[in-house]
Amino acid sequence: MDPVFTLQWPELVLAERLQSRLPKSQGYSVLVPTSRQEKGIDLAILRKQPGQKSRVVTIQVKASRTYMPDPPKRETTKRFKYYTWFNRFEVPETADFFMLFGLYPVEAGRTRSVNSNWYKDCTLVFTYSEMKAFMDSVEKVGGGPDRMFGFGFDTEQKVVQTRGDPERRERDLTDRLFETRLPKIREALSEI
């Protein structure tokens, strides 16, 4: 048994964000499994309402480094400022929601001391059925399953799929951003 409990940075950031958006005063509690053997669950949210049954949703967090490509050689080549790359994964039935977390520097060229505002994250949220359908659609351009998928963005005003789409449609996934999807999590915690 390990004598130390650790929490991955993306999970900590999202747990704190969830706790601030779903406050204890409204009956919400963000829970963290203490066992590393808890497959498919990184966070849980409990909602207790007086006189009603408690409701729990489970969350799996997947994280990616964010890459900043070199400027294109041709002016006609379009590149996003930031790209994420995720490994394709089996979608566990134990998670109700999936959060895809990409950390990026706001000012990459900054050389002076920085604070916590120097980094931001672009987090997309999927329900279990949405993530299952998405993973089933992740394919290479020539056909067959792709082992990776990714997203590109300049700002959080528009986030598109850049890898894993065989037709390279740059499917817009901006509607999956954390703040946009928070009502869906609240709704799941209200259902009895």
Rg, Cα atoms, Å: 18 Å
Residues in helices, as a percent range: 10-25%
The parts where pLDDT drops under 50 for at least 5 residues are none
Number of domains: 1
Task: Going across the biggest sheet, name each strand in turn.
Answer: 1-2-3-7-8
Shape: globular
Mean pLDDT: 88
Sheet of most strands? 5 strands, mixed
Termini separation: 37 Å
Number of helices: 3
Per DSSP, what share of the residues sits in E-state strands of 2 or more residues?
Answer: 25-35%
Look at the helices and sheets and give the structural class. Answer: alpha+beta
Order of helices and strands: HEEEEEEEEHEEH
Query: What is the number of beta strands?
Result: 10
Characterise this structure.
- There is one protein chain.
- The protein has 192 residues and is α+β, with helices and mostly antiparallel strands.
- It has one domain (9-190).
- The protein has helices at 9-21, 128-137, 178-190; strands at residues 28-31, 43-47, 55-64, 66-67, 82-84, 86-87, 97-105, 119-127, 148-153, 159-163.
- A five-stranded mixed beta sheet has the order 1-2-3-7-8. Strands 4, 5, 6, 9 and 10 form a five-stranded antiparallel beta sheet that branches.
- Strand 9 (148-153) and strand 10 form a beta hairpin.
- The longest helix is centred in the N-terminal third of the chain and has 13 residues, at 9-21.
- The protein is globular.
- The mean pLDDT is 88.
